[in-house]
Amino acid sequence: MTTITQHLGEGANTTISNIPLSGQYTLRGKLTTCVGSKTKNMNIDWFTYKTLHGSTINLCEYCARTAFNEDEVEKSYSVDHTSSLRTSGGYGSPMGKICDFASNGHMELYRLGCHRRAMFYRGLRVNVNVIDQSGEQFRPTSLLPGSETAARDGTGIFQVPSHRYYEICVTGENLQNDADLLLLHDGHFENGKKIKLIDQDGDQYYNNIKSGMVINSFTSGDSSSRFVFVAPSDEEKGAGIQADCHNKSNIINMKIGVYRKVNKQTQFRSIDAAPSMRGQTRGTPSGQYRGAPSGGSTLAGDGASTTASTHKITPPILMGTIDITIQLVSTQDNSERLHLAQDVQRTVEQKRVDEIENLQTRLLLLQRQAGEDQRSKLAKQNHLLNLT
Which residues pair with 40 in a beta bridge? Predict the structure, then answer.
């Protein structure tokens, strides 16, 4: 497990400018994440996506740009960022609108034919959120356009902005009639680093299938092991200073057990075995609406990581296991990733400057104290009687 400090250096700030959530723009004036579920009117462009069933979905400019190809969405409200001019594309003002991608209606979006917010695989729903250090505020991410075949085979390729905390959410979206509980049998990154989802006693535990499991740390309850995704710039890769786990710790393999409580009086149905052929597609975007996918690393950062409080239950019945793979990619262009890296480097260098200044101040203080001590000794000697 590589920490932020080990890779980026002492003083790397992951709580202010380097982990932005909302209201912040890239160098080119584009949002860095979705605006979230509480923003109803913002100085941004709004878009609509028409589903297979003819319904429309409201999208902030970030989600429209990253989750869809340019020809799949239509601008509904425009803002000229260089002036106060606002124009409508036919759907009226965004007053009262929120970005539908930021809602919790994953299944509703899926039923409407919008399959980009989460991966639905063999009854499981899997999604990835950008999350703040406290673990309270989240912003949605999306599957990479063009990776639908991979998702159908259990490989979810999610777009995560660089230098952000993230979480993985898994629920039994379509299993409620058959099962009650989920258990993480195994979770590990491609570089072999294990994920430990444990309770207050250090034991694995079952999760309610509706609320599901949220995984945001290498070890739950360890507040120094929160997931942070970092995608290096081309310049960093060229200099060979990317993390040792680059393009390894951005791939997470999970085996999830699905269980039924023993006292449930319903017909038992087992979960089918995993298909013999796994999807090998890593996803290729069809269009130039975003940057080409770039790999990255999962580093460990400081942040809130809770431990579940559990109670004993009768051992449930295993219905089957489901294997899924999650791959994190950044579709930010290189200039944006370089800008983030330079921001971090400035904080690291400032930390070093501050430490040097503190050391110099302490050295001067010690020198002054040493001089005063010497003068004090001389004064005391002058007061002594010269006895013979």
Answer: none
pLDDT tens, 90-104? 444 566 678 899 888
Long-range contacts formed by 18-26: CB under 8 A, 24+ apart: 18/163, 18/340, 18/343, 18/344, 18/347, 19/132, 19/133, 19/163, 19/164, 19/165, 19/228, 21/130, 21/132, 21/137, 21/139, 22/139, 26/332, 26/336, 26/339
Residue 373 lies in a domain: no
The DSSP output letter for 92 is -
| pLDDT tens column, 217-241 | 999 999 889 999 988 888 888 888 7
Number of helices and strands in the chain (H, E): 6, 17
Is residue 19 a contact partner of residue 130, using CB atoms and an 8 Å limit? no
Residue 22 reports pLDDT greater than 70: no
Tell me if 135 sits within 8 A of 306, measured CB to CB. yes
Residue 54 tokens read as 């003819």
Q: Chain-centre distance of CA 189, in angstroms? A: 15
Neighbours of 71 (CB within 10 A): 9
Domain that holds residue 309: 4-20+105-365
- Tokens (6 digits) for 301: 């950062």
Residue 269 has pLDDT above 50, yes or no: no
Collapsed DSSP state (helix, strand, coil) of residue 330:
strand
Domain count, the chain: 1
Residue 253, in any domain of the structure: yes
First to last CA, the chain: 73
Longest dimension (CA), the chain: 113
Phi-psi region of 330 (alpha: psi -120 to 50; beta: other; left: phi over 0): beta
How many angstroms separate the CA atoms of 100 and 47, rounded? 11
Q: In sequence order, what are the beta bridge partners of 171?
A: 125
Could you tell me if 87 and 113 are in contact, meaning their C-beta atoms sit under 8 angstroms apart?
no
The answer to whether the beta carbons of residues 93 and 109 sit under 8 Å apart is no
Nearest one of 197, 196, 224, 216 to 310, comparing CA atoms? 197
66 occurs within a structural domain: no
* Pick from 191, 201, 235: nearest CA to 221: 201
313 domain-assigned: yes
Residue 188: CA count within 13 A, CB half-sphere: 7
Compute the Cα dihedral for 56, 57, 59, 63 and give only its sign.
Answer: negative
140: closest CA among 46, 229, 22?
A: 22
